[in-house]
């Protein structure tokens, strides 16, 4: 301790998933921030910054996310802490948070705060080469989302309060990056406790479709 | 940065669960280390220590665990990072790891390395008041173990390679701290992919019981 270069610093970063509209279908995307200083000046990185001595790690994640992207998700959850020796030119331990954010809330927050400079949304399956080990972190977050987050959490995080099973399936297809069989999907969800049927229906040019609600009491393991 | 007292330091701690024998039944226990210096001198704490600038957080967890308890689990998994401002007299961010360790391996390691000083195993449901926020950390680890770790992980972590359904049920009862209905338990497990039946049987005074193996390919979410 104390020698020059022996310092370990703590940073926070956040991976925010949202579905952004595309002519074809919704695409799963995350916001990145272009770095304006060395190291990795000019490259894209996850939103984040240094932990301040007077704030908790969770508060630091929310603060740095708001400062860099003007986004304020309704919740942030700790994902993982990355602390390998060689992940940065100096010694940095990064506590990484994540959240799912509904696209209508992204748009609403943007219309209030304005679109911040140096921020762009990128398709998770077509990320550029990022600063530090941020490609690795984004891949880990995506792996967790695709493999360990259940239907009800996806529904709660990326959809409005009420939705049809087709809408949920389309969201799930965007997250997984592949098509799902509609009847199998319906059978699986109707038999689970993840969703609660409502007495409302979505009407339109197709036949009326029942609206469902996320069942907060049957929350699955992350 | 740089003012005295403004320093943020990174520590690692580890929660090791094992089943320790008791006349009645096995009890779920964790090893604690008695502190030999201030703050909290003389109180029990989770095994751990400072992150060294030249090692990754995972290596630091394994090193400090071995140095304090002489235990070397076959794997350590990151649990959570605790980074509230007031969790320690100085500013410390603790990256916490956990593992499940079979009791026969605990005994084997102890017979090689000797029982280290200042280490004792405590029943998770009867912990003393611990140093720092370590009661909170232990409770969080126990909550995760009881709520979010499935049958197959428990089996893989706390039982020998092959075991009967009754043995698994007894382990699960120790983890959960309550009795389970034997026929419901059998029905649930026989229908799952978490376990693979072998062609071997446990014989003895009761009727022969089939031995099962943990199915590594059907690993559940933590």
UniProtKB/TrEMBL annotation, chains A, B:
InterPro entries tied to this protein: NUDIX_hydrolase-like_dom_sf, NUDIX_hydrolase_dom, WH-like_DNA-bd_sf, WH_DNA-bd_sf, WHD_NrtR
Keyword Transferase: no
Protein keywords: Hydrolase
GO molecular function: hydrolase activity
Keyword NAD attributed: no
Residues of the Nudix hydrolase domain: 7-146
Pfam family, one: NUDIX
UniProt protein name: NUDIX hydrolase
